[in-house]
Amino acid sequence: MAFQLCGFKFASLLLLCLFAFGEGRYKSFVRFNKVQNTNRKVVFEEQWFIQRLDHFNGEDSRVWKQRYFVNEAFYKPGGPVFLMIGGEGPANPGWMQEGSWITYAEKLGALCLMLEHRFYGKSHPTDDLSTDNLRYLSSRQALADLAHFRTVIAENRGLTNRKWVAFGGSYPGSLAAWFRLKYPHLVHAAAATSAPVYAKVNFPEYLEVVWRSLASENPECPLLVKKAADILAERLNDPKTYDNITKDFNLCSKLQIQTQTDSAYFLETLAGNFMDVVQYNEDNRGFEGAIGTNITIKVLCDVMADASLGDPYYRYAAVAKLMMETFSIKCLEAGFSAYVRDMTNTSWKGPAAGGGRQWVYQTCTEFGFYQSTDSPNQPFTGFPLPYHVQQCADFYNISAEELDQTVAETNEYYGGYNIRSSRIVFPNGSIDPWHALGITRDITSDLPAVFIKGTAHCANMYPARSEDLPQLTMARDHIFLLLQQWLKE
Ligand SMILES: *[C@@H]1O[C@H](CO)[C@@H](O)[C@H](O)[C@H]1NC(C)=O
Ligand SMILES: *[C@@H]1O[C@H](CO)[C@@H](O)[C@H](O)[C@H]1NC(C)=O
Ligand SMILES: *[C@@H]1O[C@H](CO)[C@@H](O)[C@H](O)[C@H]1NC(C)=O
Ligand SMILES: *[C@@H]1O[C@H](CO)[C@@H](O)[C@H](O)[C@H]1NC(C)=O
Ligand SMILES: CC(=O)N[C@H]1CO[C@H](CO)[C@@H](O)[C@@H]1O
């Protein structure tokens, strides 16, 4: 969401699994990065790898430094090498000692590496984030980074004959699958959690899953949310209500709606409260430094059912205030123009440089994934596809035609759902809205899906805890057995 202080959101394009410190809509990278590692037993030193800027142009010899982390504590000579793939935010060193891949590494004597994705975190290939420089940001360049890193590290550390396994969740989950697909000689197997392998400009299915996930808590809940969202949208047509809305939703300045885009942005920002909570419902993310992990679907649905707060509109406002309190946000910044200003700032110190400007660029040039309100079977209203597509033009001068074309090319290049490879496991959670673009059925016995009923985004990657659902524990064990078996092949 766009908030003063923390002030930013990923234009409703949440995908992150591995990166926290209050990221996603509640950007505040700077604030949370300061508390990074305070509880860590070991501090993992960042290391740097010389990488080429453009892997596909032999005449361009420019290089830059890519950040990575190593944990050798579990490695037994002859063991495998695990490579955690970074994604659309800073690589979080917390993952070097926690998460289920670490449990697997302990059991299998694996060396653990994590490579930050180009253009995110501290891995800066260019001087700034100008649209011209963002040309070098793509999943294909990122896979070539992984291939070169894997090759050179293997040579330098005498690991050439070891079996490498790629791990990733969400977008990096897709990268893990594609790494195995495109570079089969470099990576022996992959675990691609909650991976949206199919690119799609319009992704209304996301909000359909949000409806179902809210309904699984309480069938009334999505109906109440819909009622509230409809009332709010209706009031936006009447400027006389703006003073009340400004007060009810604790806006930083008086609500101004001049265009459809202003209204879409405001409605999307408030819907974002529910989208975020559903996506990460009960994920064990505390170790990442994530805050607000106790705000669950149940908590939001309880607020929506609380008649003492007034009609559903006031309950919707109460949810917004609860989120603001949780994330220590003073007031809600609801203006689209401030968002455009942030998103077009090309400085590495800019307000969207934590990943927002880069990730939205990738959606405009590779993936789409726009979570529009274009389906009737979802609770929200007022942010249709054209609102999202227009942002590609506003931020990067990319047209709707170019967007359609590049998304089609992505599926042609990687194969979409039709992945032809082997030794890739695809875990998916029934509550996670991203499962709608993932592999949810075994493709072959060598490309199995692992379904986890009742869990959200990337649940199986987070550390185990006693209150985990039994099916989540079973999924982790099942993935381990698959990896163990594949490492013998
Ligand atoms: C603003 O809210 C008050 C109650 O808090 C209500 O009496 C008033 O009619 C509302 N104004 C408008 C224009 O809706
Ligand atoms: C969540 O945890 C915080 C910090 O422990 C606490 O202040 C807050 O009341 C909790 N919220 C809910 C809804 O449980
Ligand atoms: C970009 O953001 C930085 C840091 O907030 C700021 O100093 C700079 O003035 C901004 N640039 C523009 C063009 O707004
Ligand atoms: C935007 O893109 C169009 C078509 O590619 C190009 O002609 C135009 O010059 C671009 N505008 C800017 C401001 O870069
Ligand atoms: C929600 C969802 O799509 N679940 C699927 C995940 O994968 C399994 C296969 O293991 C499917 O049976 C589920 O339908």
TrEMBL record:
InterPro entries cross-referenced by the UniProt entry: AB_hydrolase_fold, Peptidase_S28, Ser_carbopepase_S28_SKS
Biological-process GO terms, alphabetical: proteolysis
Pfam family, one: Peptidase_S28
Molecular function GO labels: dipeptidyl-peptidase activity; serine-type exopeptidase activity
Keyword line: Glycoprotein, Hydrolase, Protease, Signal
Superkingdom, natural source: Eukaryota
Signal peptide as annotated in the record: 1-24
Keyword Phosphoprotein: no
Similarity remark: Belongs to the peptidase S28 family.
Stated name of the protein: Thymus-specific serine protease
Organism this protein belongs to: Betta splendens
